[in-house]
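Page 37, continued from 36.
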């Protein structure tokens, strides 16, 4: 018969799991760094290009963070490089249409990488520090993915979000949607950015559901950290 661990020992085990490194650890740190650096890399062609390269590095690390087939890795690499190339073209031509294509490439790559991270953290096996960091990285990637969706909606139907006109030619516009996406995903909702049309509101509701569902699934997965109090 094994002796059950007390709460102090379980908390110590959890603390040990938070310390470590792996592909998802680097992905999480890159995503946090991207959020912090984003406001400083939106003015000027060089800064925006550097931002695109940094975003592509995030996507590439996401591609290598989990196991996949050679075809899947080639797909993620191709989408990331395509996004950078299209962003270069959009910056030099000042074309919103090309920038939209770059966003589609980035969003597709982000969705594929997110699905890989989600499969990794839900896979059977022990909970490691890398899986915990992958859970946080996946949460941030989900927020980024929704911000791209909101950008597509705003470009297609101007005035979907506000208050005020969102001009993607101006620095800081896309970051506002990232900020709005994160506050929506976490159900914080400060109210400084709002969905103004019904189709935008319907997407916001779906993001809220996805955020609650993601957290619930991750908590259920991490529940295995704590052993049963019943002795066997």
């Amino acid at each position: 018969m094994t002796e059950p661990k007390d709460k102090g020992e379980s908390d110590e085990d959890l603390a040990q799991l938070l310390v470590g490194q792996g592909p998802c650890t680097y992905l999480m740190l890159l995503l946090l760094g991207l959020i912090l650096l984003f406001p400083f890399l939106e003015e000027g062609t060089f800064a925006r290009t550097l931002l695109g390269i940094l975003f592509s590095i995030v996507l590439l690390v996401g591609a290598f963070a989990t196991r996949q087939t050679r075809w899947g890795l080639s797909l993620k690499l191709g989408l990331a490089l395509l996004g950078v190339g299209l962003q270069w073209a959009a910056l030099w031509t000042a074309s919103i249409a090309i920038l939209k294509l770059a966003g589609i490439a980035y969003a597709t790559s982000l969705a594929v990488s997110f699905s890989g991270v989600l499969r990794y953290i839900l896979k059977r096996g022990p909970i490691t520090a890398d899986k915990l960091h992958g859970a946080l990285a996946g949460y941030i990637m989900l927020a980024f993915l929704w911000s791209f969706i909101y950008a597509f909606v705003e470009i297609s139907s101007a005035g979907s979000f506000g208050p005020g006109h969102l001009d993607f030619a101006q620095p800081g516009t896309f970051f506002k949607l990232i900020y709005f996406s994160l506050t929506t995903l976490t159900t914080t909702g400060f109210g400084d950015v709002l969905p103004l049309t019904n189709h935008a509101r319907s997407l916001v509701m779906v993001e809220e559901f996805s955020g609650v569902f993601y957290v619930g699934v991750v908590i259920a997965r991490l529940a295995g950290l704590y052993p049963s109090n019943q002795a066997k």
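DSSP finds eight helices and two strands in the chain. Flag for discussion at group meeting. The first strand starts at residue 161 and ends at 162.
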